[in-house]
Amino acid sequence: MKLLVKAPAKINLALDVLHKRSDGFHEVEMIMTTIDLADRVELTLLNQDKIHILSHNRYVPDDQRNLAYQAAQLLKNRFQVEKGVMISIEKVIPVAAGLAGGSSDAAATLRGLNKLWDLGLTLDELAELGSEIGSDVSFCVYGGTALAKGRGELITELPAPPTCWVILAKPFIGVSTAEVYRRLDINGMNHPDIKEMIAAITQQNYQEVCRNLGNVLEDVTLNLHPEVAQIKDQMKRFGADAVLMSGSGPTVFGIVQHDSRMHRIYNGLRGFCDQVFAVRLLGERHTLD
């Protein structure tokens, strides 16, 4: 038996860090939304009690370091599952890009194995399990648009943002999230207005969404990697309505509403950057069907 599950990327419309917690994590407030750029996760039921990861991307680990592997192992341990699974991951989302590709693969694995192994868990239960794997996994279990608090695991559903194109550009570098957080100056940052962004989304006010994009991690990554700042400048020059780095980077996204401007930005960046995508917002939550 086989099951194919889509694992969409996310972008942060707003990302704020409030303080460092006693457990070593940072207290965050983030507004995230899924986009139509997705890995394909194929789950194949195995008779032997093993987890196999198959990926043709050399940057994707095929052992316990892989978050999809950890998701399968967690379900096996928690619910005494004695069946096995082959997890084949076709990567489309760039790796180490601030787009939650690995977290989304893990979330897709949780949703898919819930069905394949007939566990009967709800999305809420899967999201709670996901929080044990990584900070973005809970959100990725749900998908759609949400406010994430705590270390990212406390999820409040939001309406889909106004319809628009999202152009993504990732330079040929990786960014260490741990290093970015280590260099973050909690006292010296400009905090995005999370409440204003929620209001803009709720009122479907595209101009206000553009005005309230913000990410406190951006300055740190721009200082470490000037090429990220160059991509931001290029996107603005080509006519994006608003531009922001997603997560800890290095991917930058710009949003526009008109097809013609999307094509201009996309074509302009392709000569400047190795990985460029033009996609739509997804907006809708996952279901267990």
Descriptive keywords:
alpha+beta, about 35% helix, 4-stranded antiparallel sheet, about 290 residues, globular, 7-stranded mixed sheet, single chain, 10 helices
What is the topology?
Layout (H helix, E strand, L loop, with lengths): L1 E19 L5 E21 L4 E5 L11 H13 L4 E7 L10 H16 L6 H8 L6 H6 L2 E5 L4 E5 L6 E6 L6 H7 L10 H9 L3 H6 L2 E2 L2 H7 L1 H13 L3 E4 L6 E5 L2 H12 L4 E6 L9
Parallel strand pairs: 1-8, 3-4
Antiparallel strand pairs: 1-2, 2-4, 2-5, 5-6, 7-10, 7-11, 9-10
Helix pairs in contact: 1-2, 2-3, 8-9, 9-10
Low-confidence stretches at least 5 residues in length (pLDDT < 50)?
Answer: none
How many DSSP E strands? 11
Shape: globular
What is the helix fraction of residues, given as a range?
A: 25-40%
Instruction: Report the major sheet.
Output: 7 strands, mixed
| Helical segment count | 10
Rg, Cα atoms, Å: 19 Å
Strand content: 25-35%
Order of helices and strands: EEEHEHHHEEEHHHEHHEEHE
Q: First CA to last CA: what distance?
A: 16 Å
Average pLDDT across residues?
Answer: 94
**Category by helix and strand content:** alpha+beta
Structural overview:
By secondary structure, the chain is α+β, with helices and mostly antiparallel strands. The protein is built from ten helices and eleven strands. The chain has helices at residues 67-79, 101-116, 123-130, 137-142, 177-183, 194-202, 206-211, 218-224, 226-238, 259-270, and strands at residues 2-20, 26-46, 51-55, 84-90, 145-149, 154-158, 165-170, 214-215, 242-245, 252-256, 275-280. The strands form two sheets. Strands 1, 2, 3, 4, 5, 6 and 8 form a seven-stranded mixed sheet that branches. The chain has a four-stranded antiparallel sheet with strand order 9-10-7-11, covered by helices on one side. The longest helix has 16 residues, at 101-116.
